[in-house]
Amino acid sequence: MKKTQILLVWGILNVFPSFAQEVKQDFFQKHPFVNITEFGTLLGRSKYETYNYYYRGYYPQPIEPQYQIQNRVNFALQTFNGIYLNKKTAVGLTLGIDSYGPTVLTPISAGIRRNLIQKKKSSSILLGSLDVGYATTWVNEDNTGYKTSGGIVICPTIGYKLPMRNGSAWLINFGYRYQRASYKQERTSDPYWYESNEVRNYRRMVIRFGIEF
Fold first, then answer.
1. pTM (2 decimals)?
2. What is the DSSP string of 44-64?
3. Which keywords has UniProt assigned to this entry (predicted)?
């Protein structure tokens, strides 16, 4: 009985790894892995507060915030890693770094890439993509008295994929990026404490260049 059990366990330990390897190879043959790394610019206009408190004697008094508008050019880097569900559609996870002036956000998003139109097998492809997720502040550093929090991020784009002979492809994408972030300022250096809260909705046009492996 013991010999039978030992032989059974030995057989499972030898057969299962080879079976799992075959399943793994078969899965990635049907659903190949894909990496898309892109660098981009974020173009838009920002409204920011010039001040929202003034002092009367020793006490800070709240007033109506004053704003100014400025054109902004920000930069973004992201990498998409996933699998092809079929020849046209890939799903995966997008990790990026977005710079908004002194603020650096790290969005983590669920992403989808879809080949929309291709006239010939080796010709350029009209590509659509969508990323939806949440931006963290993992790599951001705040000044003393300030606290930055991330928020939802949504980024639909459309562009072109230019296939290469080795199976990789160059990409150029145009789209829209919405990023929400909040800022809190606390004054605690004197007896007259106050707190200021601001929510910013970054709306940017996106131009991204990248490569698919």
1. 0.79
2. EEEEEEEEEEEEETTEEEEEE
3. Signal
